[in-house]
Design the sequence.
C-alpha cells in the first residue's frame, strides 16, 4: 500500500509544478520604469558583474539593497495582469552576455523571491533562493 501512496504523492507534486510552470509561461509582461520604492531617482548605472552573483556569499536579499549596491537593472518587467507571489522581474544584462534576473513582487514589497543567472545561450547556471 505504501508504494501507491508515494506514487500518488509524486504525481500530485509533478502535476502542481507543471501547472505552475504553464501558468507562468502564459504570463505577459510590460516594461515599466523601476519603482521609486526600490531606489532613488535617478538610479545609478549598473555595476553588477558576473562574479558578484557566482561567489558563495549571498547577494543582498531586498530589492532596495540590491539596487543600491549594484545599480539600476536594464529592465523591470511587470506582469500585465496581477499574479500571486514574485511575478515581476528585474533584469540585468551583463557585458559577458549573461543575464541576472531577480524575481520580485509588486512594490512596496522589498523581498527577492529568487535570483536566476543564465549564460548567453539562456542556460541557467545558478539559482539563488
Sequence:
Amino acid at each position: 500500500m505504501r508504494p501507491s501512496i508515494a506514487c500518488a504523492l509524486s504525481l500530485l507534486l509533478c502535476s502542481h509544478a507543471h501547472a505552475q510552470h504553464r501558468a507562468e509561461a502564459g504570463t505577459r509582461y510590460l516594461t515599466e520604469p523601476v519603482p521609486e520604492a526600490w531606489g532613488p531617482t535617478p538610479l545609478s548605472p549598473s555595476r553588477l558583474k558576473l562574479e558578484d552573483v557566482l561567489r558563495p556569499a549571498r547577494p543582498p536579499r531586498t530589492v532596495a539593497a540590491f539596487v543600491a549596491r549594484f545599480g539600476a537593472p536594464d529592465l523591470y518587467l511587470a506582469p500585465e495582469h496581477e499574479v500571486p507571489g514574485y511575478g515581476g522581474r528585474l533584469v540585468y544584462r551583463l557585458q559577458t552576455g549573461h543575464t541576472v534576473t531577480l524575481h520580485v513582487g509588486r512594490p512596496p514589497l522589498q523581498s527577492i523571491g529568487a535570483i536566476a543567472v543564465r549564460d548567453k545561450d539562456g542556460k541557467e547556471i545558478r539559482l539563488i533562493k
Remarks:
- Residues 28-128 form one domain.
- Helices lie at 2-25, 50-54, 63-70.
- The chain has one domain: 28-128.
